Amino acid sequence: MKTSATAELAPVETAALVRAVSRAPSVHNSQPWRLRVRGADVDLVECVDVALPWHDPEGRDRLLSCGAALANLQLAARALCREIATSFPLSGEVTATVHTRPGGAPAAEDLARCRAIGRRRSYRRDFAPGRVRDEVLVELLGAAGEPAVHALAPAKVDVLAQMLGFATRVFRSDAAYQRELDIWTAHTFGRYALGAVDGVPEAAFGDGPLPAAGLVRRTTPVPDDLRLAEQLAAETLVLFCTADDTRRAHLAVGAALERVWLEATVHGLAGSVLTQPLHLTGFREHLAERLGLPGLPQAVFRCGRPVSAAPASPRLPLGDLLFPDGSSRPE
Ligand SMILES: Cc1cc2nc3c(=O)[nH]c(=O)nc-3n(C[C@H](O)[C@H](O)[C@H](O)COP(=O)(O)O)c2cc1C
């Protein structure tokens, strides 16, 4: 794409983009992304050194997280009245480049989703009674906006409950998994919480989290399958599936997930995402077969009406997210 000098991103515009990316959801709040601004183009760089060998052995969630950051970057660029085009290098640390140039006013729905970026939070508690209306669910599914991603509301929640219950029991008693989770959570508790810049804070786990709502820890209660199925049936679930496991597919899922989440936020809904069980060997293939899914499930999103406000999770200082001009490393 050709850009003129006057089309370059001004520092104040760059700051808006960095802020939007910083608020994206990420696996264990690891924020595995950095930005490199080159004139009017912005590279989204994946931090491959952020490794979660027990939760995310293949780095799939890291790419999903970058996809979520990409969706925020695109929305924020549009909100700055920029036209955008996005290219996807096939390999290397740059996952995507957003090419921008001055354009017209953003579409109203993009602006609404962009404004929801700062309000979106992981909500891992029970929801208020009452289902999300069908017409709202249609809008949520429509927000995904990625042709390669099937976003669907799963049938057979009893099967899902059975399988999530199984995964919960496995993760609860996996000492190595629990040690890794401790590393990403312990420093966010009590008096340490104030200085934390990443990880999942204790308050964000909710008061008595059921396994379907979040991350399974050693102490997470394991309800019987029937109770879990009742809980799932009362919630609105969205499954994100793709035909394959390519890097491009993972980025697309992350972007679709974030758009659906932001659209839910626009509607006053809250939610959380679940990938933990999908990392058990053979789990996704088995789930796809038993639910008759159109591809491999990559993430589960649950949403509903919140009963209380979810706490904000910490973030890295914004300056840490940006490569200084001409440098290949952040400051
Ligand atoms: C790819 C991906 C996987 C995630 N997996 C889980 C999960 O299995 N369980 C969970 O409770 N939260 C999960 N999360 C949510 C993150 O923990 C959350 O986004 C992060 O802690 C930041 O908090 P926030 O969403 O409130 O900004 C996931 C998020 C992403 C993007």
What order do the helices and strands come in, and which of them pair?
Blueprint: H1 11-22, E1 33-38, E2 41-46, H2 60-79, E3 82-87, E4 94-102, H3 108-116, H4 134-143, E5 149-152, H5 157-172, H6 175-185, H7 225-234, E6 236-242, H8 247-266, E7 270-274, H9 283-291, E8 296-304
Antiparallel strand pairs: 1-2, 2-4, 3-4, 5-6, 6-8, 7-8
Helix pairs in contact: 1-2, 2-3, 2-8, 3-8, 4-8, 5-7
Bound molecules: flavin mononucleotide.
Distance linking N and C termini: 28 Å
Main sheet characteristics: 4 strands, antiparallel
Number of strands: 8
Overall average residue pLDDT: 92
Radius of gyration: 19 Å
Overall 3D shape: globular
CATH superfamily of the largest domain: NADH Oxidase
Share in helix: 25-40%
Assign the structural class, choosing from mainly alpha, mainly beta, alpha/beta, alpha+beta, or little secondary structure: alpha+beta
CATH class of the largest domain: Alpha Beta
Q: What are the low-pLDDT stretches, counting only 5+ consecutive residues below 50?
A: 1-5
Number of self-contained structural domains: 2
Number of helices: 9
Strand order in the sheet with the most strands: 1-2-4-3
Cofactors, ions, other ligands: flavin mononucleotide
